[in-house]
Task: structure prediction
Amino acid sequence: MDPSRNDSPVDHPESDTAEMASRSPDIPPAGDFGARADDDGWSPARLKRGIGSIWAGIKRRLPRVLLLLVSLGTILGTLWFFRRRTESKKFMTNTRLSIMDKEVRRACRHIEKRHADPELTIETICSELVTGEAFLNALFERELGMSVGEFVDQVRINRARLILDAKPDADPSWMASQTGFTEMEEFLKTFERITGTTYVDYLRALDHTQKSA
Result:
């Protein structure tokens, strides 16, 4: 052996390192582990940043999401309320409409028959029909859009107009007595309220219409 040749690995560190690297190509050199982990995307720092970014996005969108949920709940609640209300009205219509119509028709016939009676009031009507005043008024408001008293006035003034068509020269006081009014002034005020014109103007228009015909 040549004493001048020294094969000790201590004297040749570079060659030993190169040889180990050539034998184990998959093992990264020292100091390269952190870079390789970052390249793979699994470092704790990158994971923490990702979670933070997701949470920040959720917090930014949270008010909008809550507002959307509240709006959706309000809409659903409103739809439910109106559906229950419609079902309630439908139940009332199906179970009571025929009775209500019959009661109103009966009262209307009674009023048309007794319209010339000065004592015809809602009290006497309900007494003869054996029904409540509030109940009958509610039925008239629902079915005809007016109270019982307003319907009585309507019938009386319509009757007065029919009489005037046949007798345009009829005296107002006589007309009042024929249509259930105790005073002429009350008849004239009611006539104007129902027809939208005064008694005198109505007679003039009626006279003009009859002459034109």
